[in-house]
Automatic annotation (TrEMBL):
InterPro entries: Puta_zinc/iron-chelating_dom. PANTHER family: PUTATIVE-RELATED, YKGJ FAMILY CYSTEINE CLUSTER PROTEIN. This is YkgJ family cysteine cluster protein. It holds the Pfam family CxxCxxCC. It comes from the Bacteria. The lineage of its organism: Bacteria, Pseudomonadati, Pseudomonadota, Gammaproteobacteria, Pseudomonadales.
Length: 244
């Protein structure tokens, strides 16, 4: 892969179709009260055990929050995302964004990556080939060229860190306390939006309610139990397990 990537949006609308867009806490609240559905994705790991990607230790720890799980402590990462199984609700008939001036941070940053450990790979994006052969230089040496883009990426990363404790408290208040193991999958929840927005407005404080890790592999379950985590393999009713 070249260390220099050019990009110019072609307006095809593919990045706005079939993608769940990560939202900050404030963006999730706005999405909910404007009639959108938020999906909650949860993954967890042990700070010095299963699920911890050693090469990303600082990054994942900074965007996670400790919760009690069995007789151990699980680090939980929570993503609130705009639920877009099809076309984004704000995409008009001409494939233009209806909230362009107030669109979420992640939309403003696209196609650059938020995770500092993930390089931008055009082949992993939905944009047509011509998008990568025109426009200004976007990435050089895996770093964004534009200062404004760099600032947006850092703002998104900082929001992940600043929002995580509140996200965990909101999950606990709504009974969403089953996580997947990082690297093995996510638990995905579709909360009632009226209840979700109400809890966000109340700004709940985290409590020491017990968490559970959903795993389907018996060997992995035994390993986690050996680390004193509470696990379940029962078919979910209120959430979906998205395995890798």
């Amino acid at each position: 892969m070249s260390d220099s990537i050019r990009f110019a949006c072609t307006g095809c609308g593919k990045c706005c179709t079939g993608h769940h867009v990560p939202l900050t806490l404030a963006e999730a609240h706005q999405w909910a009260i404007s009639g959108g559905q938020v999906v909650v994705l949860i993954e967890g790991f042990l700070a010095d055990g299963p699920g911890m990607p050693a090469d990303q230790r600082e990054h994942v720890l900074r965007r996670s929050h400790p919760v009690p799980c069995g007789d151990a402590q699980l680090q939980v990462s929570v993503t609130f995302a705009a639920f877009n199984p099809g076309r984004c609700r704000n995409l008009d008939d001409n494939d233009l964004c209806g909230i362009y001036e107030s669109r979420p941070l992640v939309c403003r940053i696209y196609p650059a990556e938020i995770n500092p450990h993930l390089p931008l790979r055009p082949e992993n994006k939905d944009c047509p080939p011509e998008a990568w052969t025109q426009g200004p230089e976007l990435i050089h040496g895996n770093l964004p060229v534009d200062e404004a883009l760099r600032a947006l990426i850092e703002a998104s990363r900082q929001a992940d860190r600043d929002d995580i404790a509140a996200k965990v408290a909101i999950c606990q208040a709504l009974g969403m306390t089953t996580s997947a193991l990082k690297g093995n999958g996510f638990t995905a929840w579709l909360p009632d939006m009226a209840a979700f927005a109400s809890v966000l407005e109340q700004a709940p404080q985290a409590v020491d309610g017990p968490w559970v890790v959903h795993v389907q592999d018996e060997t992995l379950a035994a390993d986690l139990q050996g680390h004193r985590l509470q696990v379940t393999g029962v078919a979910p009713v209120y959430y979906a397990f998205i395995g890798f």
